[in-house]
Amino acid sequence: MSVEKKEVRIAVTDGMLIPSGKDKSIITAWSISLIFAISSIIYLCVKNPDPYLDILKFLPDGILVTFEVTVSAILLTIPIGLATGMGRLSENKIINLIASTYVEIIRGIPLLVQLFFIYYAIGEFVQLPDLTAAIIAMSVCYGAYMGEVFRAGIDAVDCGQTEAARSLGFNKTETMFMVILPQAWRTILPPVGNEFIALLKDSSLVSILAVSELLRRGREYASVTFNYFECYLMVALIYLIITLLLSKGVSIMENKLNYYDD
Amino acid sequence: MLKKIVLALVVVAMTASFAFAQKTIVIAHDATWPPMEFVDQNKNIVGYSVDYCDAIAKELGLTVEHKSVAWDGIFAGLVGRKYDMISSSVSITPERQKKFDFSDPYFEVTQAVILPIDASGASLTDLKGKTLGGQLGTTGVFVAKRAEGVNTKEYDEIGFAIEALYTGRIDGVICDDAIAADYVLRNPKYAGKFKLAFIVKSDKPEYYGFVVKKGNKELLDLLNKGIAAVKAKGIEAELRKKWIGQ
Fold first, then answer.
1. Which residues form the ABC transmembrane type-1 domain (chain A) (predicted)?
2. Which residues contact A28 (CB under 8 A, 6 or more apart)?
3. B interface residues, A as partner, C-beta within 8 Å
4. N or C: where does chain B have the smaller number of CB atoms within 10 Å of the terminal CB?
5. What pLDDT, in 10s, does the model give residues B41-57?
């Protein structure tokens, strides 16, 4: 009697356990959520065009700004996170201290407070444009979290790899970028994906700076019409759709990176 | 036994709160609107409209409780029965009257534009291509949005807009005249930096009213009775002198 062992690897995507790999079923939590969100919006707009369709027409430029903030911040956090993560593992005491202090300070201050600080407090001396201030605050904040993720990922690569690379004549930089990081990516990607999704959701905090992103547009509409329920319902559904698409993107990337596992 | 005690306590608490609710009127203020309603250095909610409510309560023998609420969602909270009325410099507009009931007017306002001391501009048309800041969902912002070629930026609080003007992010601020005057004349930080450039001409006068939930006739009648009494006894004139100085 031999028991056939089937391996199902688990990829973590934003708190949901999704068996990845060979499972090609249509009915997943992800698809159910997406269908629910899209069909809700369609149903509401068809059934009550006033106010739902009006709200929907009011929001697109806000969605674009939300994208703009999120994508720019993601692009900035990757190098910041990488530098911080490598800095935290550096043998150079000063670099290590700088990276660790940055992480400690930034992790200890709420993002909303950081936004206020960069926009209003520093604004007394330097006036950054709203969007720039928002993107910088988001990047600085998430760079610290990302740094921790990178550090753990690099740490998780077996130290034999470094030894092997060094003994083959790679220098430190080559070892890091050609041997360690390509392997670390696979460990790093799921938690990094989670950070991206958290960043997208936290971009709604930027509305406090009068940046006209998705939530702010919803609030502007609600403040005139008093249709609070309808407005925030639409905003919530749109956020849900964007987040689901982003998480799908991350899990597709995970599967691509793991192609030699299957 | 314990169950009985708990049950008794619950019953007592419920009746107490019910009796309490009959007497105390909870009033919501967005206390970021000096001199109408704002938080002073001792963290008390003070201002013209706060005193006005207290005067009404005194005339009618009611007890009131003042609650500090953010402007964004202040109407939603009234719908959600979190408080009985809003006294937060709410201008009476037809759109708002569709959803809520207003007391008789207790203050007349116009919309004023604050500009840096060295800027020029005597009407909204002079501000084409410029950015005016204001508070989200206030009549000032509505006026700015209707003006052609003027960009509006809606902040959560009027103080944020004033600060943005101070740091040069925007070109001007639009808000109720009494508030504008307070920021320009009384605030030591901004004194000498801003000027009250002009009043936006409007064919319709604008008034503040107290807001109650649609159909709350009982409270509405009380308020109107109180406003009439406060006006007749000259208390209103005293309050104007105290807070607005005119």
1. 63-250
2. A18
3. 72-73, 75-76, 79, 95-96, 99, 133, 136-137, 142, 153-156, 160, 163-164, 167-169
4. N
5. 898 999 999 999 999 99
